[in-house]
Amino acid sequence: MTDAHTRNVDRQIEWYGEPLGDRFGRLLARLGLSQAQLAGVLGLSAPMLSQLMSGHRSKISSPAVLSRLLHLEAMVGDAAWDALPPDEQSRRLADVRAAERSTLTMVTSEVQPAAEAAPARPQQALDPVSVIQDVLRAVASAAELEGAADRLERDYPDLAEALRVLGTGRTPDARAYYTRILTGPA
Predict the structure, then answer these.
(1) Alpha-carbon separation of residue 29 from 32, 60, 157 (angstroms)
(2) How far apart are CA 177 and CA 13, in angstroms?
(3) Are 123 and 112 in contact (CB under 8 A)?
């Protein structure tokens, strides 16, 4: 029998590919924000962010918060983020905070080099594996993805494997699979 904390962290790994404490922790370190400030950007209360990070809660229940998280990760994951002046970084964080889910996309970022005077333009997210996992996990639970893979196994075994590895597998395994598929057999 596992305790509630272990069960919650296991669910986070299943749903989000890793514990939320790791994801939020990277953002906190990258942005130099306090937990309360990050919670504000994401549209969460500080206690809720703390509970998600510590594994006392397992799920981000708001699609808008999840969308902001994905957008924020893509935005600050782009190397051009570092070239932006602090006031521009602050403005973009405020834009994320104010955005509704419908105005954010999971696969684009508004980051551009600071030297460019043109308005921000979408750029492809840096990690396609995370995007694929996020999309699959947003539309179906792990059990549903596994069930779909089971149904496809006989006639479409490669597609079944893709659903299992990318949809329900651990992120490092998904990255290895993605690389193997794109580069072909060794």
Answers:
(1) 5, 21, 41
(2) 18
(3) yes
